[in-house]
């Protein structure tokens, strides 16, 4: 009897152990499958949520109830939130929608928000010039998640204020950062560099010099400080001023590094002075300052500007010999060089080589190829490349969208322009107002008023303003063809949008 009980007990334990091991194996299997398959369902889910947010009528209804229905809190992982915000940024979505999504993720997720998600939200708000909302967001994070406040978030804010507001406003914003956003933190060289970069990135070198003179006594300068100023002179296009500043830096005891050389090489290459760029490359090697992939990529591009394709090809082929690896940037530089020399066939071959080597084509690759195709193959070649791009589900950057829309409309291919518009909307994008201007102008000139009205309405529904020029065009045409009900609907949507969208946020930038 005792043996029977013991046998029964051992069987139960064995059965329990088997079940536990099965569960463990099942969990491991699910984990492995999830990791291996995540990119595919995750990408489609990110597309879906981005589309839902962009399609949501703004400001007719609050977004949160829709988010509650569509996004279970358990799915609000940091990577998911970051990816959706990244799509909203590239889609030129309304900043208030992005903010509402970010706030939803904070309130309903069990996990703390990531730095990347916060910075993306801040970037979207400042790009649309929602500065009051951006300051409010920073102060909220200071109270609830102070670890999210970084030098990068400070840089995002100051750069956009320097871009859209005055010199005095930028200095005041820096002071506010020091006293309100980061109180108790000792501002040093890093914070000072952020402010200098804000001016230099906007090519405001007079202001950058003024700030440097006024405030350098408060903050110790370092190599990065000098390179930021040097970069500013380079971006302003004044090579002479850049070189004068460089020699002034050296006299002060500054030791140039790889970044210093890359900046100077880029300045010469952009001016077509390839010989000066190659001279600096030799100087780098002589001083045992190893050239980076960025250095060689810059020189390949410079060879293209100088129409020296043999040198561009030599530099491109030498990349592996320098213990470096070809990347998308290096291929883009070589493709650009070929396009400048009207060798579209060799550029196409390089693009195909990228596919074979599984080197990803990016927005620059497509933009460069479209430019070359427009000049060499005309509308047929552009349409062929466009079809390949859309088959790959690639979403082009704003400048490429505007360029394509202009090309399609000017070449009487309005249907292709409409296809581009619908493709972007389907992908959850909010096409740029310049693209709408071009498309509506083309449609109205062909009396395709119904389609022009649909595109305008889609723009407004996504919380973005149409230009005054497009509105007047629609007003004139709708009245002419007695479509006053459609005009009244546009007026109602515009009025509603104006009540929540700041006047300063109407003008978009690329």
UniProtKB/TrEMBL annotation:
<dbReference type="InterPro" id="IPR011990">
    <property type="entry name" value="TPR-like_helical_dom_sf"/>
</dbReference>
<feature type="repeat" description="PPR">
    <location>
        <begin position="362"/>
        <end position="396"/>
    </location>
</feature>
<feature type="repeat" description="PPR">
    <location>
        <begin position="222"/>
        <end position="256"/>
    </location>
</feature>
<keyword id="KW-0677">Repeat</keyword>
<dbReference type="Pfam" id="PF13041">
    <property type="entry name" value="PPR_2"/>
</dbReference>
<protein>
    <submittedName>
        <fullName>Pentatricopeptide repeat-containing protein</fullName>
    </submittedName>
</protein>
<feature type="repeat" description="PPR">
    <location>
        <begin position="327"/>
        <end position="361"/>
    </location>
</feature>
<dbReference type="InterPro" id="IPR002885">
    <property type="entry name" value="PPR_rpt"/>
</dbReference>
<comment type="similarity">
    <text>Belongs to the PPR family. P subfamily.</text>
</comment>
<feature type="repeat" description="PPR">
    <location>
        <begin position="257"/>
        <end position="291"/>
    </location>
</feature>
<dbReference type="Pfam" id="PF01535">
    <property type="entry name" value="PPR"/>
</dbReference>
């Amino acid at each position: 009897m005792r043996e029977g009980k013991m046998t029964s007990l051992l069987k139960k334990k064995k059965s329990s152990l088997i079940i536990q091991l099965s569960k463990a194996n099942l969990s491991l299997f699910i984990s492995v499958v999830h990791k291996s398959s995540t990119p595919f369902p995750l990408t489609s889910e990110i597309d879906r949520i981005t589309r839902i947010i962009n399609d949501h009528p703004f400001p007719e209804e609050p977004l949160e109830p829709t988010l509650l229905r569509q996004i279970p809190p358990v799915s609000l992982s940091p990577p998911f939130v970051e990816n959706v915000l990244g799509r909203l940024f590239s889609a030129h979505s309304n900043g208030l929608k992005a903010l509402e999504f970010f706030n939803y993720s904070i309130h309903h997720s069990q996990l703390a928000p990531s730095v990347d998600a916060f910075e993306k939200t801040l970037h979207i708000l400042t790009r649309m010039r929602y500065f009051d909302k951006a300051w409010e967001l920073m102060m909220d994070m200071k109270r609830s998640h102070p670890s999210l406040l970084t030098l990068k978030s400070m840089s995002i804010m100051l750069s956009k204020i320097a871009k859209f507001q005055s010199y005095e406003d930028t200095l005041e914003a820096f002071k506010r950062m020091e006293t309100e956003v980061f109180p108790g933190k000792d501002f040093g060289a890093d914070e000072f560099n952020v402010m200098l970069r804000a001016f230099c990135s906007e090519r405001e070198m007079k202001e950058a010099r003024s700030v440097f003179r006024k405030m350098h006594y408060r903050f110790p300068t370092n190599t990065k400080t000098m390179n930021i100023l040097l970069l500013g002179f380079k971006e302003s296009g004044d090579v002479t001023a850049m070189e004068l500043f460089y020699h002034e830096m050296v006299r002060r005891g500054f030791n140039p590094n790889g970044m210093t050389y890359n900046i100077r090489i880029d300045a010469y290459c952009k001016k077509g002075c390839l010989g000066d760029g190659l001279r600096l490359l030799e100087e780098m090697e002589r001083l045992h300052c190893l050239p980076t992939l960025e250095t060689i990529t810059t020189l390949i591009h410079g060879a293209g500007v100088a129409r020296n394709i043999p040198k561009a090809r030599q530099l491109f082929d030498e990349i592996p010999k320098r213990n470096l690896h070809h990347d998308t940037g290096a291929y883009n530089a070589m493709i650009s060089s070929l396009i400048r020399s009207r060798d579209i066939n060799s550029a196409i071959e390089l693009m195909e080589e990228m596919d074979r080597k599984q080197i990803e084509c990016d927005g620059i690759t497509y933009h460069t190829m479209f430019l070359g195709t427009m000049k060499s193959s005309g509308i047929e070649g552009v349409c062929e490349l466009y079809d390949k791009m859309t088959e790959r589900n690639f979403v082009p950057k704003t400048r490429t969208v505007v360029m394509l829309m202009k090309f399609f409309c000017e070449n009487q291919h309005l249907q292709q322009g409409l296809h581009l518009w619908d493709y972007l909307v389907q992908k959850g994008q909010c096409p740029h107002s310049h693209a709408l201007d071009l498309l509506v102008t083309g449609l109205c000139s062909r009396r395709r008023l119904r389609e022009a009205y649909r595109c305008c309405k889609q723009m407004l529904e996504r919380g973005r303003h149409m230009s005054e020029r497009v509105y007047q065009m629609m007003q004139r045409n709708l009245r002419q063809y007695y479509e006053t009900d459609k005009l009244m609907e546009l007026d109602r949507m515009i009025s509603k949008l104006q009540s929540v969208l700041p006047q300063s946020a109407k003008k978009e930038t690329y």
